[in-house]
Design a protein that fits this description.
The chain has about 325 residues and is mainly beta. The chain folds into two domains: about 180 residues, Alpha-Beta Horseshoe (Leucine-rich repeat, LRR (right-handed beta-alpha superhelix)); about 120 residues, Ribonuclease Inhibitor (Leucine-rich repeat, LRR (right-handed beta-alpha superhelix), Alpha-Beta Horseshoe), CATH 3.80.10. It has four helices and 16 strands. The longest helix is centred in the last third of the chain and has 8 residues. The protein is elongated. About 35% of the residues are buried. Its main location: nucleus.
Length: about 325
């Protein structure tokens, strides 16, 4: 007969009783778990929890709470908004649950990271209550159709709204500290970045763009991902002199243009387009000829010749990868 101790789920708790990691313990409740009052981090990722243990409400030292990949719905998470002892919480992860709306986070006045990705949320309504201290907001893989109620988040550095139903880029004028914007897999047709001059990474992959215009003011941009759109012309890129990664694969390009000034370009993804001339690529990438280490060109007319890889290696002396071919 197994002892009670043997039936306890495996867990990791550090010597100071500050961190409790119960990841992948398949717990349905926390009834058999001791929750030390000194906990700073509580990780309940990948369990079977459908409600919150009321003892969590007493963990006044808690800074990080992860309920990722559980069975938490709106009614189950609702008590959290009344647990005043948790007001100093800095990181709240509710990713991959059964939420239909954004939970009320008004009491968390020091919140830095908030993640409600992979739920069934249809609107950002309720985020107006989120603390203006927020630096990272993740709402990917939901059903959101409008960017709203987040204008007050002036300190936001990362905004993830990929895999939703957005059609318009809007209400982002105040995000002057934004470093990363992830809007892939939406329904956006026009770029509108509202003059975000400090942003460093932008993803608009798998949208409905037909033009590259709209990035001209993003002079600090280092990475730009625009694959799987309907773009037929490269334009508006010449001012992006800090760009290191440019992905315009799977579009409708027939030529490579407006990147001669990009002297820091390291990765260039042009595969699955309609580019005819290797010579034109050589001229277009003159500014980063020595810097370029990765180039993808497969599934273009110019990549049909048997020696095109050899030709590219001559053109770009420091190239380390051409398509799937790696070079020492």
């Amino acid at each position: 007969m197994s002892s009670e101790k043997e039936e306890q789920p495996s867990m990791e708790i550090d010597d100071s009783d500050n961190v409790l990691d119960l990841t992948s313990c398949q717990l349905h409740t926390l009834d058999a778990i001791e929750l030390p009052p000194t906990l700073i981090e509580l990780d309940l990722t990948a369990n079977r929890l459908s409600e919150l243990d009321s003892r969590i409400a007493q963990l006044s030292a808690l800074k990080k709470l992860s309920l990722r990949q559980n069975l938490i719905d709106d009614s189950a998470v609702e008590p959290l908004s009344r647990w005043d002892a948790l007001s100093d919480l800095e990181e709240l992860i509710l990713r991959d649950n059964k939420l239909a709306k954004v939970p009320d986070t008004a009491i968390f006045s020091k919140l830095l990271v908030f993640d409600v990705s992979f739920n069934e949320i249809t609107s950002l309504q309720g985020l107006s209550k989120a603390s203006s201290t927020l630096k990272e907001l993740y709402v990917s893989k939901n059903e959101v159709n409008k960017i709203m109620e987040i204008e007050h988040l002036h300190d936001l550095q990362i905004l993830e709204l990929g895999s939703n139903r957005l059609r318009v880029m809007e209400n982002m004028e105040n995000f002057t500290k934004l470093d990363e914007l992830w809007l892939g897999r939406n329904r956006i047709k026009v770029v509108n970045l509202c003059g975000l001059t400090c942003i460093k990474k932008i993803s608009l992959q798998s949208n409905r763009l037909t033009s590259m215009k709209g990035f001209e003011d993003c002079v600090a941009l280092e990475e730009l991902y625009l694959s799987h759109n309907g773009i037929s012309k490269m334009e508006g890129l010449s001012a992006l002199v800090n760009l290191r990664v440019l992905d315009v694969s799977n579009n409708k390009l027939t030529s490579v243009d407006d990147i001669q000034t990009l002297t820091k370009l390291e990765d260039l993804w042009l595969n699955d387009n309609q580019i005819e001339s290797l010579q034109a690529i050589t001229e277009a990438v003159t500014g980063s000829k020595e810097k370029l280490t990765t180039i993808y060109l497969e599934n273009n007319p110019c990549a049909k010749s048997a020696d095109y890889v050899a030709v590219l290696r001559q053109i770009f002396p420091n190239v380390e990868q051409i398509d799937s071919n790696l070079f020492a």
